[in-house]
């Protein structure tokens, strides 16, 4: 199973129970992937400019409390 089309076809043949289990697995997998990417971005400094800009806005009074 190497192509997206093959994966889609296999998913379309899943039982409702297996489809539910796949949804749960994928949600967890996707969240973990996003978390790892976010941590990598923090570690490598990719978000530093955004953080600096947000702090600048805060110090200028350009932010509102949520």
Write the layout of secondary structure elements.
Blueprint: H1 4-12, H2 16-43, H3 48-59
In short:
The chain is mainly α. The protein has helices at residues 4-12, 16-43, 48-59.
Given as residue ranges, the uncertain stretches (5+ residues, pLDDT < 50) are: none
Structural class: mainly alpha
> Count of helical segments?
3
Helix content: over 70%
Q: Could you tell me the radius of gyration in angstroms?
A: 20 Å
Structure description:
It is elongated, with a radius of gyration of 20 Å. The model has no long low-confidence stretch (mean pLDDT 96). Helix content is 74%, strand content 0%. The longest helix is centred in the middle third of the chain and has 28 residues, at 16-43. The chain has helices at residues 4-12, 16-43, 48-59. It is mainly alpha-helical and 66 residues long. It contains 3 helices and no strands.
List keywords for this structure.
3 helices, elongated, single chain, mainly alpha, 66 residues
């Amino acid at each position: 199973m190497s192509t997206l089309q093959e994966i889609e076809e296999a998913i379309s043949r899943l039982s409702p129970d297996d489809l539910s289990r796949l949804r749960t697995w994928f949600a967890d997998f996707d969240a973990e992937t996003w978390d790892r990417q976010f941590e990598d971005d923090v570690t490598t400094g990719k978000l530093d400019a955004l953080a600096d800009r947000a702090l600048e806005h805060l110090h200028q009074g350009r932010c509102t409390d949520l």
